[in-house]
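Q: Here's a chain of 384 amino acids. Please give me its 3D structure as tokens.
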Amino acid sequence: MLYDIIVIGGGPSGLNCAHKLSQAGLNVLVFDKCSKIGENKICTGIVGIEAFQRFQLSKDSILNEIRNIRIISPYGSLIEYKHPSILAYVVDREKFDAYLAHLALSKGAQMKSKSEVITIDVSEEQVKVIAREQGVLRVYCAKVAVLATGVNFKFNKMLKLGLPEDFLYGVNAHANIKGIDTTTIHIGNSLAPGAFTWITPIKDGWVRIGLMAKKHPRFYFKKFCEMVSNSNGPLDIASVGYKPIAQGLVSKTCTDRVIAVGETAGQVKTTTGGGIYYGLLCSEIAVQVILKAFKKNSFNASAFSEYEELWKKKIGNEIKTGYYMRKMYSKLTDWQIEQLFHIAKSNGLLSFIEKRMEFDWHRNLLLSLIQTTPIGRFFSKIIQ
């Protein structure tokens, strides 16, 4: 059987593609290597309120809401940011992804779980996919393939697509600890080089705890957990996972009959490492371009080039600005970060940030801080 679309990967961006393309009348098949959609995701599951509003997402997956954030410096200085409304939700990823899968299935998409795609072959006539299902290799064909494989870049390399410029390395754990009721972030290059740590409450003492770091994530996570235990009492870790996090623009995200979406295309916030919202946004652009290609019955790289142009126009500057700022931040010593804290706590900067704060869009705030506040002067001295 020749499918219209094969989607490889059952995360949010792939499932949203499957939903919208099925809704448009195309014959869609989704492969996911896990036994259950949303299973074993290494993700804190923080999704901004804008995503829920824009994509009319079900709120059944919400575990907690985020309004306030505590940020702690390397030397223990505290900034408490209180947003006037809900900034984001903490979600159960299994339920969140299962809802997106339900939408796709309701429009006629087919799904194969426990099916790992081994190889992809693209010809002038079709895309041929070989998948391993319960130890048996099977062949499937489609007019177009959508790569939504997360941080698995095997097919990017196979099809000569681009790769992220850089990576951070993330750790995320489900744990139990008493006395933490506000999302808390620790920053400092002695604790999480190039990034930060976090503790996000869920309910009944359960939290998501993790960090991103430029190197040695296991070492720094162990160090962070010891620090938390010393300050707050016993930390009971139930599960922990590790993954790379894409940083910077991916140069090429489409080719003949193939489009990459989500983390596979580097569509990740370089400031926080979150990829759900950007993946959903860009999956809608992918759908738009694919539907145009079906109307013209043209599926070559030229037909898909509009996708590259549109998604980079949408979020490219966000990714580039965040990546540049992260590289600047990674050069700071802990003492310089402490100085930055003192600047941020003075001069009415918290009020300045509150007025410009958007959970998923950071470029305007970052540029405003650099161009119009003492933070800009601080970084100018560092660069010199």
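Q: Can you summarize the key feature?
A: The first helix runs from residue 12 to 23.
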